[in-house]
Amino acid sequence: MHTLNNFPEYASIPLITQRFNISRSGIYRMLSQGDIQAVKVGRSTRIVTRSVEAYFARLPRLGVAA
Fold it and tell me: Which pLDDT band, with edges at 50, 70 and 90, does 5 fall under?
């Protein structure tokens, strides 16, 4: 199990689904919409972890008065 401090900079889709509790189809949807970034390493896709964190940081917060 990875902790926040040693989570990889580029992670596999299964690892991202587990860490961020996002479905596989949700990840592909986010990729197609340009919400997160990925790189190809041979035939493997690696998600740029920082882009997922940035995506969550951009989401509106619930219960916060504007």
Answer: low
Question: How many Cα atoms sit within 13 Å of 65 on the Cβ side?
Answer: 0
Pick from 61, 53, 56, 58: nearest CA to 11: 53
Q: Enumerate residues 6+ apart whose C-beta is below 8 A from 23.
A: 17
Directed axis angle between helix 49-58 and helix 13-20, to 10°?
30
DSSP 4: G
The pLDDT of residue 2 is above 50: no
Which distant-in-sequence residues (6+ apart) come within 8 Å of 16 by Cβ?
A: 22, 27, 47, 49, 52
User: 0.85 cut: is pTM over it?
Assistant: no
